[in-house]
């Protein structure tokens, strides 16, 4: 193990790194809005309602939410769960073949497009007839070529009386929402929108403490002093990925000085290490901006 990492873990009594930049479901933390979104997303997909969309800024926890829901649904044998992590497909055939591969269907990737479509449709009907609900997660969906949204819309036409043969969950940055809006025939198919927003002060502290406990921290009080927590929130703007990166570096700074508590100056030192000076002022400006108006789809979901 890297000596610096070993020192960091030993200083705070940890058995693993609590702030790795991965979407490990074991570290998933449910805020109240997050728990509500997770439950709604899982139910939407498991009940065969069709299309769900999760959007949010970079680092807001979209992939973490996806992995948590995917793991939950995969535990039920009635669900047939697949995932596509890189949707940069060149054409419709590539997308259809990738969907089949993700769900474990065997189709001839060299066949003509019509044959590929028919084969995938047949596999979906057979899975549904066997009592299983195919569910496809597409992460980083802002990278999906817009013309392929029509392919997904066509797949959502396959259905029984009470459910879709294929449920699709898209996750992406805010430009995904804009792309969907540009295609009314597709946006009309959205059964659920979930927008991830920055964490509040209480939610940020809860996330940090949850991940510390999962990593073996057994102290009676948080290793982050109050001013350190406030500094972390201000500098991260409540974005989970920024928050955890700063928290980890701050703990490493404290460990280098043989301290078991993180103070505000440790956060400042950590920020200087991982945030270029040219971006520091932009981060402060971003943190001070008021929240954006509610996007149209939230009003639409309330009215529907």
What does it look like?
By secondary structure, the chain is an alpha/beta fold. The chain has 2 domains: 3-22 and 199-286, Helicase, Ruva Protein, domain 3, CATH 1.10.8; 32-198, 3-Layer(aba) Sandwich (Rossmann fold). 52% of the residues lie in helices and 10% in strands. The protein has 14 helices and 5 strands. Strand 3, helix 6 (149-155) and strand 4 form a beta-alpha-beta unit. The chain is elongated and about 65 Å long.
Topology of this structure?
Blueprint (H helix, E strand, L loop, with lengths): L2 H9 L20 H15 L4 E5 L6 H13 L4 E6 L7 H12 L9 H17 L3 E6 L10 H7 L11 E6 L1 H8 L2 H4 L2 E6 L5 H14 L11 H11 L3 H17 L7 H11 L2 H12 L7 H8 L1
Parallel strand pairs: 1-4, 1-5, 2-3, 3-4
Helix pairs in contact: 1-11, 2-3, 4-5, 10-11, 10-12, 11-12
CATH fold name of the largest domain, please?
Answer: Rossmann fold
* CATH homologous superfamily classification of the largest domain: P-loop containing nucleotide triphosphate hydrolases
Oligomeric state as shown: single chain
Query: Runs with pLDDT <50, length 5+?
Result: 282-304
Strand fraction equals 5-15%
Helix content: 40-55%
CATH architecture of the largest domain: 3-Layer(aba) Sandwich
Strand order of the largest sheet: 2-3-4-1-5
Number of strands: 5
Straight-line N-to-C gap: 54 Å
Compressed to H and E, one letter per element, the order equals: HHEHEHHEHEHHEHHHHHH
What is the top-level CATH class of the largest domain? Alpha Beta
Q: Provide the domain count.
A: 2
What form results from the Cα inertia axes?
elongated
């Amino acid at each position: 193990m890297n000596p610096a990492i070993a020192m960091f873990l030993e200083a705070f009594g940890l058995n693993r790194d609590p702030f790795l930049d991965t979407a490990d479901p074991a570290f998933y933390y449910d805020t109240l809005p997050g728990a509500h979104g997770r439950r709604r997303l899982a139910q939407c997909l498991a009940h065969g309602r069709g299309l769900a969309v999760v959007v949010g800024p970079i680092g807001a926890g979209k992939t973490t939410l996806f992995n948590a829901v995917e793991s939950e649904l995969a535990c039920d044998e009635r669900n047939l769960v697949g995932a596509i992590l890189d949707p940069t497909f060149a054409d419709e055939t590539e997308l259809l073949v990738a969907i089949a591969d993700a769900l474990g269907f065997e189709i001839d990737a060299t066949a003509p497009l019509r044959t590929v479509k028919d084969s995938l449709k047949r596999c979906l009907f057979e899975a549904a007839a066997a009592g299983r609900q195919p569910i496809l997660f597409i992460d980083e969906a802002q990278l999906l070529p817009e013309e392929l949204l029509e392919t997904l819309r066509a797949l959502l036409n396959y259905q029984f009386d009470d459910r879709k043969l294929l449920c699709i969950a898209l996750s992406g940055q805010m430009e995904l929402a804009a792309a969907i809006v540009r295609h009314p025939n597709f946006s009309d198919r959205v059964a659920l929108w979930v927008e991830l927003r920055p964490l509040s002060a209480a939610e940020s502290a809860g996330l940090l403490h949850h991940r510390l406990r999962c990593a073996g921290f057994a102290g009676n009080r948080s290793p982050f002093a109050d001013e350190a927590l406030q500094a972390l929130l201000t500098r991260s703007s409540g974005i989970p990925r920024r928050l955890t990166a700063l928290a980890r570096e701050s703990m490493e700074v404290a460990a280098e000085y043989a301290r078991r508590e993180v103070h505000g100056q440790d956060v400042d030192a950590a920020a200087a290490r991982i945030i270029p000076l040219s971006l520091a002022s932009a981060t402060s400006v971003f943190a001070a901006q008021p929240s954006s108006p509610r996007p149209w789809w939230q009003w639409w979901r309330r009215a529907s």
